[in-house]
Specification:
This protein has 163 residues and is an alpha+beta fold. The protein has a single domain, classed as Beta-Lactamase. 25% of the residues lie in helices and 33% in strands. The strands form two sheets. A five-stranded antiparallel sheet has the order 4-3-7-6-5. A two-stranded antiparallel ribbon has the order 1-2. A hairpin with a 5-residue loop joins strand 1 and strand 2. The radius of gyration is 15 Å and the shape is globular. The structure holds flavin mononucleotide. The site of flavin mononucleotide has 18 residues, from helix 3, strand 5, strand 6 and strand 7.
Length: 163
């Protein structure tokens, strides 16, 4: 994935050199600007077995700030916000790899450096006992839960050695 570019950022940004699970890394630029989840909408995407995005709806494109062309063929970690603890995604992958659906609160990174919170459900697609892909549906999160989870995730990040 490409480095985030200062020209795309809206607001005052902090820089991170971020490493992904697959060993790749890139520059992130992160602001404190929140975009609220659009009430009544659903953000939907599908992946192949490797977790690469194969389909995303208009709400996904709109909220992430990326074009559909930039999203298709890319892993969901393009949305990975540095405030999310590693353990949350480990739990997600362990759960769906067992063939079970996972739900949780996720803070996502936008192309412009801002963020948006979602309540996500990830459903593995199983054929002949094998996970062949996933569908993820994100709903508007409860504000109380967002406040609660932001604090929980900060504690988890500290336990992972990140402030
Ligand atoms: C169907 C599906 C949807 C996902 N959606 C997101 C998402 O919206 N935001 C996100 O940060 N990670 C999402 N993930 C998790 C990413 O695959 C990845 O594990 C995470 O971004 C952490 O990146 P890393 O594992 O490279 O450290 C999703 C995974 C699956 C299978």
């Amino acid at each position: 994935m490409e480095d985030m570019q200062p020209r795309d950022i809206v607001g005052e940004g902090r820089e991170y050199h971020w490493s992904y699970f697959d060993g790749t890394s890139r520059r992130l630029i992160v602001t404190n600007v929140e975009t609220r989840f659009p009430t009544g909408e659903l953000i939907v995407s599908q992946t192949d077995a490797q977790g690469i995005i194969t389909m995303c709806n208009d709400a996904f494109v709109h909220m992430s700030g990326f074009s559909r062309e930039q999203l298709l063929g890319t892993p969901h970690s393009i949305l990975r916000h540095p405030d999310m603890p590693k353990a949350a995604f480990a739990d997600l992958w362990n759960t769906v790899d067992e063939g079970t659906r996972w739900s949780g609160y996720v803070k996502n990174l936008r192309r412009d450096g801002g963020f948006y919170w979602v309540y996500a459900t990830v459903i593995p697609k199983i054929r002949n006992g094998v996970v062949v892909g996933h569908t993820s549906v994100r709903r508007e999160p409860s504000r109380d839960k967002v406040e609660e989870l932001a604090a929980v995730y900060a504690t988890m990040r500290a336990e992972e050695g990140r402030v």
